[in-house]
């Protein structure tokens, strides 16, 4: 089996909000202890924003380490480009792609492979001949289509279902079905609206009935300004405006429903609606009656992972209040929210466990009413085990597994190179067993891209996974004579980044003629890395990595140097100083003679004030003419490229005749 020891790892430099993605053995991330102190051990020292120059110096060293990592990982990229590989889709447009009809349509399809793949498209299930359509071009070295609609061509002419195929000599990968639909923001149909004459205390519903847009518009109501909403007057989920009871101040000539179509950045408005409230004395109070939903029960289906919205709006005087419960259970904690004055129950990220009966209760002083909504949570397919790329050597066995769940349970179908496997060319090494393809004694001609489709009535998943049959002798990608340096007592991680098919066996030796390394003092990682958990001075030396498989053998030598740790042998001490006096903090260090230390002083974990009274010497910090604002904690940080150590002491500034109240003490911190 093919094997490569480099993992895809994300490195976070949280203090600066930086994010670097590199291919590297994950155990080597920030192997520089100094970087660990400042990036991973936030409790060691915290730096205020903006980042000060002291932290910038530390960060420069850390970033230099990461640059070395990136350069080393580029060796893999160079080698990777020399190995044949079936296509992999790397970027594609969403399945449901709503486009702006005023702009060119861009349908993305990017893929990688060796040799680089060629691209083709189908539209509505048949070959889409791009060369015969003057409005359509394909980007160079890409499968992305650009449809030019600036020459009077309507976007509607290009509605349809598109699918991209990326193909090379090793196989063919396919994209999802991409449904292209232009957004629409139609006008309201003209209608004659009669004035609404309503008795004070009665309920009222003003219908919006917005035009059907794509995507659906956002609805809001206004009169001559923003229309305030309350427990008594509010907008429903369907866009209608509900009055639990009308009051004389609701009389208006210009209730207007607006539909905002964000995709086309347009707003349409309905004709103004007039409401006239007439009074009759006395105003009769009324018990609650539900305006929506109607009846005593209703049903609601929602999909797993979506937001569940349930609504109850009631009429009545006084205005009813709404309460929600789940029959036979509790509303899910941390995922339940109440909106629109508790008329809307919102549950985020629903799952099958949220199915059940939800009851809304509307109550005022004259009584109550309720409605039960039976919720069923269905699920479009979701992955249990998505198929993963498989690299084998001739004669090896392997499996592709495709497992998905959903409600209802999805059906699994397989394709090879974009063709249903039942009608694809036969391969004697391949056997399909439901959600698994079993490969036995593969040959190089068995290389292909397989597609797994998991589908039910609510959607589908499509995954590409290639089977790449390679015969490659071992190659070691770690640079020859690479130098590793660590501090005594800390772990040493020595790389042997390798490639081969079948998977090479790795052995380590110390010294040119040394014996093979074994024993509890070493850890041998599957990715080839040799770990010495506690490196000592006698661990220094030459280490040889040997990689072998049935096609050959190769080896590589690297060097390990173990350095003495940096120590502060005389740390700063607690000081109580009178105003206007002079104070000095010592920071005497001992370090490995081959390492160059850098000493940084901080005040309260920030850089020192820009003040000529602060004098930084080789082994001390002196503050002249001390003032009250010099009160605080002073930290000496000693950095080398391999380790970091710090010590802190408090300075207390006092007036005369108060020194006798203080005892000597030191605050010491060793990171």
Summarize the structure in words:
5% of the residues lie in helices and 47% in strands. It is extended, with a radius of gyration of 36 Å. It has six domains: 3-80, no CATH class; 85-182, Immunoglobulins (Immunoglobulin-like, Sandwich), CATH 2.60.40.10; 196-278, Immunoglobulin-like, CATH 2.60.40; 286-380, Immunoglobulin-like; 386-469, Immunoglobulin-like, CATH 2.60.40; 567-661, Immunoglobulin-like (Sandwich), CATH 2.60.40. It has 671 residues and is mainly beta. Mean pLDDT is 86; it is low at 1-58, 66-79 and 664-671. Strands 5, 8, 9, 12, 13 and 14 form a six-stranded mixed β-sheet that branches. Strands 15, 17, 20, 21 and 22 form a five-stranded mixed β-sheet that branches.
What are its keywords?
Immunoglobulin-like; disordered C terminus; cell membrane; 6 domains
Low-confidence stretches at least 5 residues in length (pLDDT < 50)? 1-58, 66-79, 664-671
Which bin fits the share of residues in helices? under 10%
Q: Tell me the name of the CATH homologous superfamily of the largest domain.
A: Immunoglobulins
Count the strands? 59
Largest sheet: 6 strands, mixed
Work out the helix count: 2
Mean of residue pLDDT values = 86
CATH class bucket of the largest domain: Mainly Beta
Distance between the termini: 43 Å
Estimated radius of gyration: 36 Å
Shape: extended
| Quaternary structure | single chain
- By CATH, the topology of the largest domain is Immunoglobulin-like
What count of domains describes the coordinates?
6
CATH hierarchy: architecture of the largest domain: Sandwich
* Percentage of β-strand residues: over 45%
* SS-based class: mainly beta
